[in-house]
Amino acid sequence: MTTTIANFADTATGWQRALYAFLAEKEQRSGSRRTVEGYSRMLQDFFSRSGKEPDHVTAQDIFVYAHGPGLSGKQPSAITIGARIACLSSFYRFLIRMELIQSNPCDRLERPQVSPSPPRGLSAEQVQKLLAVIPNTPVGLRDRAIILTLVLTGRRRAEVLGMKAGDLSIEGDRAYYAYRGKGGKKGRRELPKPALDAIIAALGAFGKALATMRPDESLWPSRSQQCKGLTSGTFYGNLQRYFRKADITPAGVHIFRHTAAKLRRDAGETVEDVSCFLDHSSLAVTTVYLRRLEGEQDRTWAKVAEAIGV
User: Fold this and answer.
1) 3-state secondary structure of 169
2) How many whole angstroms separate alpha carbon 123 and alpha carbon 251?
3) CA-CA distance, 143 to 87, in Å (whole number)?
4) Rounded distance between C-alpha atoms, residue 109 and residue 101, angstroms
5) Taking every pair of C-alpha atoms in the chain, what is the biggest distance, in angstroms?
6) Global pTM value
7) Gyration radius of the chain over CA positions
8) What number of other Cβ atoms are within 10 A of residue 208's Cβ?
9) Is 101 helix (H, G, I), strand (E, B) or coil?
10) Among candidates 254, 246, 253, 292, which has minimal Cα distance to 270?
C-alpha cells in the first residue's frame, strides 16, 4: 500500500480493497485530501506494525500502537493517541457497516482527556496590518482576495482554495457562492462585495474575467499552473511571509476562520448566529432553527469589512 488511495486502487485485494473503499468514502464525506492522507498513513503504519489482518486485531494491539512511540522515537501526546484511536475506530465502524466484521476493538479503549488550546483569531487591526504588507502584484492581489474571502465568509481553507468560477453567481447587485463543506454539507451564501471586487481585480491581473472563464476554472490562477490554479502549499508559504512582514505571529490558514468568528461577535452577532454562519455541527439542534444566513442576504459582512478597512 502507498500513502494515497489512488495509487493502489487497481492492484489492491482483500482487506486492501476495504481500506481503499474506506478512504474513498472519507474523502467524499470530508472533502479534505489532507485528512484522507493522514488516515491512510496511520492505518498503514498500524497494520504494517501489527502484521495482522483487520479481523484478527485485538484491543491490546490498538492500545500498544496508540500509546507507542512514533518514527521520531518520542512518546505520543494525548492528541496523537486520541487521533490514532479515532482513525482506527472510524475504519472499524466502516467495516461493521459493510458487514465485514462484527465488532470494533476500539470500543474497549478509553480515549485520553485532551484540553484543547483556545482558538486564536486576528483582531481587525491585525487584519489591516496583514493586508497592508501584501504587494500590489498579480500574486499579491490574488492572495489578498483569498484572505478577504476567508475572513468575510468564514469558510474553511479547502472550501475557499477549491472555489471555481462556476461556484459564483451574480443576481442583481449581489453575488453568491456555492460550497461543499465538511461532511459533504452543501450550501449557498452571499459573497461579500469586498471579496468579489478583490477576486475580479486579481483575475484581471492574470488576464482573466469571470464572464469568460470556464465553470471548472479555479478562481485563484497561478503563473505556473494556469489551468489547475494555486496550490495550498504555495499560498501557505506566501502567507507566512506576509505574517512576518506584518510582525504578526505566523499561523496556519485556519486562523482566518477563527478571525471570521471573532469579528462577527465583535460586530454584534450572537453565538448562535456565528455558529450557524460557520456551519458548526456541535450546535446541530440550534442550527436547525437559526440558519438564517444560509442562502439569504448577509447582513453582517459590511461591519466586518469596515472594521478591517476594506
Assistant:
1) strand
2) 14
3) 34
4) 18
5) 62
6) 0.66
7) 22
8) 18
9) coil
10) 292
CATH number for the domain whose boundaries are 15-108:
1.10.150.130
Q: Which residue reads 489591516 in cell numbers?
A: 128
d(CA 26, CA 22): 6
Q: Which three cell numbers stand for residue 111?
A: 480515549
Cβ burial of 171 (10 Å; 0-12, 13-18, 19+) is exposed
Q: What is the CATH architecture assignment of 124-307?
A: Orthogonal Bundle (1.10)
- Can you tell me which residue has the cell 486576528? 122
What are the phi and psi torsion angles at 275 (to 5°)?
Answer: -60, -40
Domain ranges of the chain: 15-108, 124-307
Same fold? 15-108, 124-307: no
Cβ pair 84, 42 in contact under 8 A: yes
Cα 213 from Cα 192, distance rounded (Å): 21
pLDDT in tens, 54-87: 999 999 999 999 999 877 778 888 889 999 999 9
Contact 151, 256 (CB under 8 A): yes
Residues in the chain, total: 310
* Cell 478591517, residue located: 308
7, β-bridge pairs? none
Tens of pLDDT, residues 96-106:
999 999 999 99
Comparing C-alpha atoms, which of 267, 294, 268, 266 is closest to residue 280?
Answer: 294
| Distances in whole angstroms, Cα of residue 216 to Cα of each of 29, 236, 242 | 21, 23, 29
